Amino acid sequence: MAVPSNPQSTDRPNLPQDLQPLKAPTSKARVFMRILVMLIGAGLVSVALEVFLVNNNIIDGGITGISIMLSHLFHLPLGIFLTVLNIPFLFLGYKQIGKTFAFSTLAAVLVMSVGTALLAPVKPITFDPLLAAIFGGVILGAGVGLVIRAGGSTDGSEIVAILINKKTPFSVGEIIMFINFFILTSAGFVFGWNNAMYSLIAYFIAFKVIDITNEGIDQSKSVWIISDKYKDIGDALTQRLGRGVTYLEGEGAYSGDSKKVIFVVITRLEEAKLKAIVGDWDPDAFLAVGNIHDVKGGRFKKKDIH
């Protein structure tokens, strides 16, 4: 291909304003908040590990759990194993998943490694393994959840699960559970079976807190309602729940009849009230409720239930 002799010939042509290519909006504030959330999350993971779990011989799942066991066996700082063991998986993540995810995970792992090194001399808050498992699991789950919300991960095993998921019928969650079953079982041989069971408690608590951190306690739900009294039900939902509703056009596959479908997004706390409203107007109405992981835009806001 010939190189243009005029450097300006490589510039974009002078198109009308409405035909100029659109650039995706970037927000420095959004990027800063994402980094801040990730740093806070990774910091919380470090606190959970060094202040609660490690000194009580309680492990987490994944690469973190393996790192805790190796640190105990070889008497080396935990941060060394967190970094070294995660690097190969981060390379896989970079190649197969994307550089943003890989670099975000690398940043989280490095913060965790440095954080555990700084917190290693700190005296544990409790030596009661049950309390350590409970509070360590809560803080660990909150930290991991924040990192995930920021677009990263804290453990290379999640990258492995994502890659295996692409070639097998198993979900990412099922693969992670399978991997962690063997890791948590191994803790029984290293720390004893009591500590392995405490580790299972901590892991379960962390797992649930991750969901709460990502979805919120006041989880959103999507609702589809099919009823001949759609207008009355829609008005009641608007007046009594303060929710905006959308009417969709539907058609019965068997009867071919035209139907109106009500679509509305509510919070978990409003579900019972919604069902009562629908039941008052049409006990035979078709009602489907599903969980939503995230809601943005529109007029969705938390409302008082009347």
How many beta-strand runs? Answer: 4
C-alpha end-to-end distance: 70 Å
Number of helical regions? 10
Q: Tell me the strand percentage band.
A: 5-15%
Global geometry: elongated
Q: What is the strand arrangement across the widest sheet?
A: 2-3-1-4
Explain what this protein looks like in three dimensions.
The chain is elongated, with a radius of gyration of 26 Å. A hairpin with a 6-residue loop joins strand 2 and strand 3. The N terminus is likely disordered. The chain folds into two domains: 187 residues, no CATH class; 73 residues, Alpha-Beta Plaits, CATH 3.30.70.120. Helix 1 crosses helix 4 and helix 2 packs parallel to helix 7. The chain has ten helices and four strands; from the N terminus they run H-H-H-H-H-H-H-H-E-H-E-E-H-E. It is of the alpha+beta class and 306 residues long. The N and C termini lie far apart (70 Å). It has a four-stranded antiparallel β-sheet with strand order 2-3-1-4, covered by helices on one side.
